[in-house]
């Protein structure tokens, strides 16, 4: 055994996660790749991509729209139509046949939506009318952002129900569970953050009001599919998409206090360069903690192993390395370094290139490009 294998050994330990037995501590982090069709339906290319990565202890899928209103981009997959459920079934079957496990990440874009990025051309919805200022990507290039509409109380209840319905659809599609995307500036985060939630009703104001929507979504999804099949992703302090939280600690402490009794499968927390997000979560969360180093610092074998070995997290999610290494875990076991991404421009394009054409460490052939 070489020294590189030794350093990363903690990642190769097994773990019991809710109803699942994980063969290792590596979670493939959710990564949007925009390879669905214009109806949000996954095809064979996506089945190939995820099956190639089935060596992960757990795969968390790319963000999936739980409703038309939640859609961030055209060609982002959804989980609200029969065709989408059937498309995802091909993906989950392929992952299971390859020996893997996969959760669906439910991602509602909220204020970051745009009529040009929604199949129905609708106006984005959000806690409050606080538009983004940065241009928005569409299939026709960058366009000016559009101000969102504030959700009514009735629409909030409908949105919570959409998450629950989408979670049920995920299980029908063969997923092993769902992760609620409450991080990185998406809708639940927009309720938590003070710059995007200016509401004066029960869903805004102080800490209790701001945590209400994420708590209701989590409880509804847990009720729909069973808490041991549900994870929640949070990124306290994260400034992506112009988010600003002036004092995240008390808000997240209250959120975790309220959802802890549900008995979720896990909490997934992204480390922040300024706010001690992971340390706070470790202190306040009694259950399984999945750690991620955050986008400011790409995960390495050493940083991933250190999170688990140091007890800062039980599992570690690995994102960008999974783009260029379908066999992240197998490389750890063999002491083979992770390959670098060749072409960043292919993160969000269509087609096989930069998506399913990265070889495993013991293959020299690259799959044919289409
Ligand atoms: C191309 C790309 C797409 C991403 N899409 C998502 C997403 O859909 N949902 C999410 O929660 N995080 C998303 N992320 C963030 C990753 O899950 C992860 O937190 C981040 O890449 C940092 O981990 P890493 O250093 O291992 O890459 C994305 C990151 C990248 C690079």
SSE diagram, text form:
Elements lengths: L2 H5 L7 E3 L2 E3 L3 E3 L15 H9 L5 E7 L17 H16 L4 E5 L18 E2 L9 E3 L2 E3 L5 E2 L2 H20 L4 E5 L5 H6 L14 H19 L4 E5 L13 H12 L6 E5 L6 H8 L4 E4 L8 H9 L5 E4 L2 H4 L3 H7 L36
Parallel strand pairs: 3-4, 3-14, 4-5, 5-10, 6-9, 10-11, 11-12, 12-13, 13-14
Antiparallel strand pairs: 1-2, 7-8
Helix pairs in contact: 2-3, 4-6, 6-7, 7-8
The structure holds flavin mononucleotide.
How would you briefly describe this protein structure?
Helix content is 31%, strand content 15%.
Describe the largest sheet: 8 strands, parallel, barrel
Stretches with pLDDT under 50, minimum 5 residues: 1-5
Chemical compounds bound to the protein:
flavin mononucleotide
Number of domains: 1
- What structural class should be given to the helix and strand makeup? alpha/beta
Strand element count:
14
Helical content class: 25-40%
CATH top level class name = Alpha Beta
Strand order of the largest sheet: 3-4-5-10-11-12-13-14
Q: Please give the radius of gyration in angstroms.
A: 19 Å
CATH architecture descriptor: Alpha-Beta Barrel
| Count of DSSP H/I helices | 11
Percentage of residues in strands: 5-15%
| Order of helix and strand elements from N to C terminus | HEEEHEHEEEEEHEHHEHEHEHEHH
Our measurement of the CA-to-CA distance between the termini, rounded to an integer number of angstroms, reads 39 Å
Assign the CATH topology. TIM Barrel
């Amino acid at each position: 055994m070489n020294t590189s294998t030794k350093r990363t050994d903690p990642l190769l330990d097994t773990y019991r996660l809710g109803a699942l037995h994980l063969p290792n501590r590596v979670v493939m982090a959710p990564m949007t790749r925009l390879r669905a069709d214009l109806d949000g339906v996954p095809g064979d290319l996506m089945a190939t991509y995820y099956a190639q990565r089935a060596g992960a202890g757990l795969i968390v899928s790319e963000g999936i729209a739980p409703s038309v209103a939640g859609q961030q981009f055209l060609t982002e997959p959804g989980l609200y139509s029969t065709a989408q459920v059937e498309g995802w079934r091909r993906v989950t079957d392929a992952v299971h046949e390859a020996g893997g496990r996969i959760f669906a990440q439910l991602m509602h874009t909220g204020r970051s939506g745009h009529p040009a990025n929604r199949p129905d051309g609708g106006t984005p919805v959000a806690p409050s009318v606080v538009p983004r200022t940065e241009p928005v990507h569409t299939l026709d290039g960058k366009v000016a952002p559009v101000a969102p509409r504030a959700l009514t109380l009735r629409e909030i209840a409908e949105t919570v129900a959409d998450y629950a319905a989408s979670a049920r659809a995920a299980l029908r599609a063969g997923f092993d569970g769902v992760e609620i995307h409450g991080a990185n500036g998406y809708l639940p985060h927009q309720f938590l953050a003070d710059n995007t939630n200016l509401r004066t009703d029960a869903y805004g104001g102080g800490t209790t009001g701001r945590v209400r929507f994420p708590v209701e979504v989590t409880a509804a999804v847990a009720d729909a599919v069973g808490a041991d099949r549900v994870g929640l992703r949070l990124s306290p302090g994260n400034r992506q998409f112009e988010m600003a939280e002036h004092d995240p600690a008390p808000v997240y402490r209250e959120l975790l206090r309220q959802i802890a009794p549900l008995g979720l499968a896990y909490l997934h927390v992204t480390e922040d360069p300024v706010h001690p997000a992971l340390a706070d979560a470790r202190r306040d969360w009694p259950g399984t903690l999945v750690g991620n180093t955050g986008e400011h610092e790409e995960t390495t074998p050493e940083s991933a192993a250190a999170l688990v070995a140091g007890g800062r997290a039980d599992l570690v999610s690995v994102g960008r390395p999974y783009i260029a290494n379908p066999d992240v875990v197998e490389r750890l076991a063999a002491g083979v370094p992770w390959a670098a991404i060749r072409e960043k421009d292919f993160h969000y394009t269509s087609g096989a290139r930069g998506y399913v054409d990265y070889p495993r460490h013991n293959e020299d052939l690259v799959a044919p490009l289409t």
